[in-house]
Amino acid sequence: MIKLYRFTHCPFCDIVQEYMDEQDIAYEIVLVQRENKPKEVTSTGGTVPVIEEHGKLISDSKKIIAYLQSTHQVKRT
Q1: Which run of H or of E encompasses 30?
Q2: Tens of pLDDT along 14-61?
């Protein structure tokens, strides 16, 4: 399952989470605290959102969505 590392209030994190919800992509949220970021976040530059899937870490909302579009079947409306 994908892990989504995010802050509670973050518009870029919201975009990724909304996309994953719309596409029915299963994920687990990992809330990140600004003063105590996990290595998964610091190793990708220290910003969120970050997703982790199969040991791969991806940061930046646009890159995350592009990755999800290329690796997960996109629902057509």
Answers
A1: strand 27-31
A2: 999 999 999 999 999 999 999 999 999 999 999 999 999 999 999 999
pTM above 0.85, yes or no: yes
Token pair in block for residue 21: 């919800």
CA 12 → CA 17, 19, 50, 59, distances in Å? 9, 11, 10, 11
Dihedral, 31, 47, 72, 18 alpha carbons, nearest 10: 60
Q: How many CA atoms lie within 13 A of 52 on its CB side?
A: 13
The answer to whether the CB of 14 falls within 8 A of the CB of 55 is no
Per the CB < 8 A criterion, the answer to whether 49 and 63 are in contact is no
Q: Where are the alpha helices (DSSP H) in 1-77?
A: 11-22, 39-42, 61-71
Domain residue spans of the chain: 2-71
Question: Domain 2-71: which topology?
Answer: Glutaredoxin (3.40.30)
